[in-house]
Amino acid sequence: MKALFNQLYDYNFYCNRQLIEQCGELAAIPENTARLFNHILNAHHLWNSRILNRPAEYGVWQEHPLADWQDIHYENQRTSFEIITNTDDFEKRIDYETTEGRVYASELKDILFHVINHSTHHRGQILMDFRNNGIEPNPFDYIHYKR
Description:
Blueprint: H1 2-24, H2 31-52, H3 66-86, E1 93-97, E2 103-107, H4 108-132, H5 142-146
Helix pairs in contact: 1-3, 1-4, 2-3, 2-4
């Protein structure tokens, strides 16, 4: 399972890095793109914090300047790889509180998969936002990454 999660998180790292680079080349980042990508970064950070039972530094919809995106993204990925590497039990239950104050418990493997799925979902929305703003997005399909 470690190998699979490492591969999925490497794919996530690649896609987000490509998106950050493409945004850096734009004269202006579409507002919804910035909002959604910040949410991707913040949610990933928040889930890492929950797994490690640490306080989160960012709010779920907090905005960051483009200049900070790469550092936040890198730290998210580094922390996730550390979690995956140091885990012996992917079925371990993680107790956490949502941003609305509700308490839940989920298996680590489900949380790790959720982070990837959540990021992919919002990247899809960003690619539609790019197209709606006349910007040709890079291909982020998993098969393109694997080629």
